[in-house]
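Reviewer 2 asked us to include a model.

Predict the structure of this chain.
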Amino acid sequence: MNYVESLQYLMERLPMFQRIGQQAFKKDLTNTMKLLAILDNPHQKFKSIHIAGTNGKGSSAHAIASVLQSAGYSTGLYTSPHLKSFTERIRINGEEVSESFVVEFVEVLRPHIEKIKPSFFEVTVAMAFQYFAEKQVDIAVIETGLGGRLDSTNVITPLLSLITSIGYDHVDILGDTLEQIAGEKAGIIKPEVPLVIGSTQRELYQVFANKAVELKSPVFYAEGIRCNRTGSDQDYQYFQVTDREGSYPIKSDLQAAYFEKNLPGILKSLEVLQLLGFQLSNEQIQAGIAQLVKQTGLKGRWQILDRKPFIVADISHNIDGIAILLKQVSLSNHSKLHIVIGMVKDKDVHKVLELLPTDATYYFTQASVPRSMNSDELQKLAEDMGLIGQYFVDVNDAIDAAKKNAEQDDFILITGSTFVVAEIEGL
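Predicted model (structure tokens):
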């Protein structure tokens, strides 16, 4: 098989959560362990950092990886889902896994895949771990896919665990209270492995503390680090950081305002890594965060596509993410607001729609995955809430319509689903 055929094999034969949802989620780690055993347990052959959370885990993973890379460490990075290319999921020092490795891996593992029948995600996790082991990375930053306790990545014993903010997402799988969701995320805590709590949700601290005490894991809270966003320009956003050492400025080429909430957890994690023996100077930390997007290839987080009109693509898709995104939009200078939005059926669509401004012009759309809500159905739901616009079956048709309607000083926001952003041409 060539690369295209290998991917087609994986996507067509294996259950894929991104496409079909809950049916693809395996509620144990058995398949992952079987695959890794066949590969001689590559996950035990490299050091790692494990990150879980509802919002912020992706940008936190990229930021920590970028700093480690700036400090000269050979750094693996595993994230999901991908936006444009499958190879985005697996990187070393920002460079995506080669297509030839993907082909070879699928060929070698194919007989076992046929027998075990793992999910798409279980195979990609095994692939990433094998790649990092073969390339002998100094450390790998591993982002969970969904939850934590039962996530396929939760076979590693990392040097450090980080849990970012907790919100309502995947409630059909993880639970319908923040405490239940936090309990699932707490599943990544390992015996005697340091844990960083990146959010300031004190009502959930006890959930994490109980698990940490049980496993004798030292806990570090990021709430002692204050990060205030002071502004932005075309290239960076700027923060003033205050911690026990004093106050200092920091900048990042990741322009999403919600990065302000993630930065304390990132900085605390780097502080713990220093305690664990990693040589990370202040200059290297600042350089890594300043070049986060450039060094890791992060996409879809307040990604500016054009400036006249101002066009931004952002993968925010749950209540907390959309709320922060809309606040950043409201603070920008623009005339009229145009929103291109599509969502998946298993999200809390009504509550997200309730957050959207009624004075914007809407272009309802859908991605080409089975989980997507039909754009005409989304339009009808939105109209009941006073959100007026047209519907489009194709994402790029919706964007083209927004561009035709927009003036030079207008703002076009493309959001609501990772899959909508993924289908933007030329992203």
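The domain at 303-422 is CATH 3.90.190.20 (Protein-Tyrosine Phosphatase; Chain A). Confidence is low (pLDDT under 50) at residues 17-21. We have added this to the supplementary material.
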